[in-house]
Amino acid sequence: MFATLDLEKDMSILDVENNTTQAIDEKSSLDRENKRLGIKSRSRDGCIECKRKKKKCDETRPSCQRCLKSNIPCVWRDVKVSKKRFKNILPPTEKLSIQKPKSINFISNNPNSSLKKESKNSKLVKELEIKDALTFDSLEINHNNNHTDLIKFTDDYFIKPVDLVIHDNKLDEKDSTDDYLDEDVFNTAKNSFFLEALRENVGNGFTNLSLFDINLNKFPSQQILQGLDKEEILYLDYYRTCVSQTVSILPNESNFFLSLYLPLAEKHKSILYALIGWAGVFLDTSIDSNIPLQYIKKAIETSEYEMKSKTLSNVDKLSIISLHTILCAVLICAGDVRDWYKHFQMLHKFLLELSNGELKNIKKYLGDSKEIKWLISNFLYHDVLASVSHIKGTCFKMQEYCQILDMNISCDNTQGKVEKIIEFNTNEKDIEVIDNDIVCDPLQGCVRPMYVLIGEITNTFVKLKNMEKMLKENEHSLTYEEFIKLRNKSYTEMDNKYKSLEKQIENTRPHKRSLCYLKSDKDLEIHLTLFEVFRLSASIYLKTTIKKIPPVSPEIQHLLVDLIPCINIIIGSSVQASLCFPLLVTGISSISQSDRSFIKEKVSQMSSYFPVKNFKRILVIIEETWKINRNGLDCTQWFDISSKFGWDLCLA
């Protein structure tokens, strides 16, 4: 998300050295005339922030008074540049809050929608007029608030989200006559200023080795095709070209659905049959077809035969972990709410056996490869999003996952010094989750730090339930004074944990290395928007589960107003597969009829054309919540409804 950069107005007029005495006199004369007429003119030589806000700048350098009071960087441009030359001017390390040359507005197809724009010579779009407050005729996303400071890659490199607008889920294409940068600037990695700066900042240091070196252009090989009939070959090709691309939100360079599963499929037929079954789920349009189940059964039987009476090598163990990981994904994609968790439990048991009960030993026994770390990251993903985890707690603590995945909690006042792994020190300020891992998860992408916080919210909720149960049991066995002290201690501890989580959600930044694989700044914008979707969703989730703040409260509705437009941007994009959790949180938090109609339309839209049938499940949960909590006065939890239906639901 980038603000509009008006090149002609903001840059061409800033060549101070070439200003003539005549130009200065004309400016002074114009200022005097404006003052006489009572016109508040904006400075032509002011800072970028004042220009963006259409405010008069006092032109005090190095920082104007407005920026000083707002405690924001005051940036100036003293370079004369034309629109065509812009792409060659700014180096990747330019310390500017560059703003994307597009305004994007969220507007529905409602025929009553009203959008007024200024003429083509105008540089900014006027605010939308909402004729009907109860419909989504128009909705402007203002990202200049406390809820949308998306990311600070380093202290020196800052991407600041600003006003975004979309038309019918697509980026608004401006006429070539409008004063915007050429589109190809943001469509090629070569001219992606932000991506290039990010890559330079992150560097190319790699420590974890890959177990397989795969050339996807030469797949499928004769070895993997041996024994397959024509239909099975087509299914395998569909997995390679479609399924693996649909479930991954990152480019192929970090797509383990290709780089790990395909080499394993060459060595183990069980993996091969599981992948064919996965493709069957995506291609299966009839309820009665049993193609996916047929190949799942075949994969399990083949695995038992392959591993029978055999000393397992590390690759064999990797294959077993991968098989159960794939089967979980296949069944979840098929909309299963029972059997997937059986495979997940088997996988959990196998991981405990391999690590002697301590997850951190996995790298010791299986090696510190990228593939091993990703499989653990994959397990984290499903563990955090499982409804069962809200009853029992996650299979492994977030601290254990973070030890494997090189994730840390740090404090700003330590100047970047890494603190104890995921220990929530409530005495420190500005704590955040930092994902330093070089392994990029194609399921979680840059959002992985936020999944860790969602997992911590889940475990905190379980602790809260246990604490309340303990207090109830001790009420009559203690004196009233003792009971008061116990309650005070318990709720103080819980409140401190809540504040800690709230601060972490506010400060945590995306996983930088995942962003480095993207191909353009437009992709970067989408992924940062996805991170904002999860940050807002996690904030709502924290407040409704731990603080038990009902959806009807202004606090929740304020977050919802920011969240809905961001979700609308993501639907239809390359990262829409990640929307199960945010859509569920948004649906449960919606109390107005217009919000509910909008969410129902979007989830139904995802259910109708997106092959992951889990979206149908969450629509059922959302509609049941609306029946139970019509006015949004209560905190109805999705996992309680899932248990009511007898579902072991996973929001993956």
UniProtKB/TrEMBL annotation:
Single GO MF annotation: zinc ion binding
Domain of life: Eukaryota
Zn(2)-C6 fungal-type domain: residues covered: 46-76
GO biological process: positive regulation of transcription by RNA polymerase II
Protein's cellular compartments: Nucleus
Keywords for this protein: Nucleus
Main location: nucleus
InterPro entries named among the record's database cross-references: Fun_TF, Zn2-C6_fun-type_DNA-bd_sf, Zn2Cys6_DnaBD
SMART domains per UniProt: GAL4 (SM00066)
Cellular component GO terms, alphabetical: nucleus
UniProt key word ATP-binding: no
Matching CDD domains: GAL4
Record's signal peptide: none
UniProt cross-references to PANTHER family, sorted A to Z: TRANSCRIPTIONAL ACTIVATOR PROTEIN UGA3
Protein name (record): Zn(2)-C6 fungal-type domain-containing protein
Species, as recorded: Pichia californica
Origin organism lineage: Eukaryota, Fungi, Dikarya, Ascomycota, Saccharomycotina
